[in-house]
Target: PTS system, glucitol/sorbitol-specific EIIC component
Amino acid sequence: MKIITDFASGFMGLFQTGGKTFISWMSSIVPVVLLLLVLMNTIIAFLGEERMNKLAMASAKNPVTRYMILPFLAAFMLGNPMAFTMGRFLPEFYKPSFYASQAQFCHTSNGVFPHINPGELFIWLGIAQGVQKLGLNTMDLAIRYLLVGLIMNFVGGWVTDFTTAYVCRTSGVKLSKQVDVSLTPDNA
Model:
């Protein structure tokens, strides 16, 4: 009987600890995420969707803007998963590479910009808690993670360009390298 009661107590303790953690987030990280989302929406409303579209199309012209700057801006302005929608302004050939770069960036920026991927914030908070217990600054780690992420996401996107070219060549598929945002579901 003691084993059953110990198990039940431990099981309930797990949820009590989760509840305490949730309440602490409600007074610390949730307001920050909420205010970052408000800022992001304000910037988009101020700039206008048309300007955002023009920025994305201009970013498609070279690998640095395509796999470093555009994913950063898309993640910061739109968050995950909406950041992937900026890929619609890229030529078909570059969409797989943008997706690879964007998917990684939504993870590597969470420490500095928690509004980008709040669904995975618990991973960053777990790492940050360990770093804090060591007496180290979590923002130093977050900035390093962001910077390494920017470089590695660029490399991942660029390598995917070569992979896409190889797959196109071996399969006989030809993907356009010209931007065409005029296609809609009605006339595609």
Remarks:
- Residues 63 and 158 are 7 Å apart (CA to CA).
- Residues 183-188 have pLDDT under 50 and may be disordered.
- The radius of gyration is 21 Å.
- The helical segments are 2-26, 29-47, 49-59, 63-78, 95-108, 121-133, 138-171.
